[in-house]
Write a structure and sequence with these properties.
By secondary structure, this protein is an alpha+beta fold. It has 2 domains: about 5-200, BirA Bifunctional Protein, domain 2 (2-Layer Sandwich), CATH 3.30.930; about 205-255, SH3 type barrels. It is built from 5 helices and 12 strands. The chain has helices at about 20-30, 80-100, 160, 170-190, 195-200; strands spanning about 10-20, 40-45, 65-70, 105, 110, 115-125, 130-140, 210-215, 215-225, 230-235, 240-245, 250. The strands form 2 sheets. The protein has a 7-stranded mixed β-sheet, with helices on both faces. Helix 2 (about 80-100) packs antiparallel against helix 4 (about 170-190). The longest helix has 22 residues, at about 170-190. The chain is globular, with a radius of gyration of 18 Å. The structure holds biotin (BTN). Biotin binds near residues 48, 49 and 56.
């Protein structure tokens, strides 16, 4: 079904009608030493996983649930930037296939309007000095017409936004091309220096109030954009600018948090 869709760094597709999680499958193959560039796609996931241990609802075939296994020659501390690179590739894929300009909620959610259409979960196996493999899992709500009660106020689908069914093969084919193009720019420097300007144009947070949650509490500031490491620069009320690398950043007005 997806065999004719691969190109560039993506050399192979393994398609499941149903599996627990394409990230799990990709990790199993990664452990077995499969070469990089295999894309795992499932029609349905029975145990889809999101960031921060959340469940990713993906039990129907309306979405595109896929994970890419790569083995880049980069330092482990650079791996998290591949999530931002992937977000750019997904935003461009959606634009090319549907004409809709999605934006990125830092670091890696794709939003249309104030709702999430795609999430990305990157997982890595590494030694202190080198990456063994990286799995980049991408979940795109493609042809969903309704959502589970728990996410219905924050989620959207390409169908809901463009009013027509979108072919998942078109998305996969374009994603392979776009991921390769952005990845090749990234690996020149192994940071976001070639990509930060373009990322910042796609950043929904830019210039908007954000609430930064950490164990110390919640602080409100204004997002300025990312730096070359992929960190989010936030200007706080007292005038200081800090780079945020981890923790929860919520954007006021998005996902129903006004
Ligand atoms: C998030 O926004 O929390 C990340 C969601 C990532 C979901 C995708 S679907 C394909 C791959 N397999 C998984 O179990 N998760 C990722």
């Amino acid at each position: 079904m997806y065999d004719g869709c691969v190109s560039g760094i993506v050399s192979d597709v393994i398609h499941f009608t149903e599996t627990d999680s394409t990230n799990n499958q990709a990790k199993c193959y990664g452990l077995q030493g499969v070469s990089q560039g295999t894309l795992f796609i499932a029609d349905r996931q029975t145990a889809g996983r999101g960031r921060r241990g959340r469940t990713w609802i993906s039990g129907d075939a309306d979405g595109l649930w896929m994970s890419l296994l790569i083995k880049p020659d980069i330092k482990p501390e650079c791996a998290s930037m591949l999530t931002l690179v992937t977000a750019m590739a997904v935003a461009e894929t959606i634009r090319k296939v549907t004409g809709i300009s999605g934006l990125i909620k830092w670091p890696n959610d794709i939003v249309i309007g104030d709702r999430k259409v795609c999430g990305i979960l990157t997982e890595m196996s590494a030694k202190p000095e080198a990456v063994d493999y990286i799995v980049i899992g991408v979940g795109i709500n493609v042809n969903s017409k309704e959502f589970h009660e728990s996410v219905k106020d924050m989620a959207t689908s390409l169908y809901m936004c463009c009013g027509r069914e979108v072919k998942k093969e078109d998305l996969v084919k374009t994603f392979c091309e776009e991921f390769t193009a952005y990845y090749e720019k990234f690996v020149v420097t192994c940071d976001m220096s070639e990509l930060a300007d373009e990322y910042n144009k796609l950043l929904v947070n830019a210039g908007r109030p954000v609430s930064v949650e950490s164990p110390a509490g919640k602080r409100v500031g204004k997002a300025l954009g990312i730096d070359v490491t992929g960190a989010l620069l936030v200007e706080f009320e007292e005038g200081t600018v800090e780079s945020i690398t981890a923790g929860e950043v919520s954007v006021r007005g998005l996902y129903g948090y006004v």
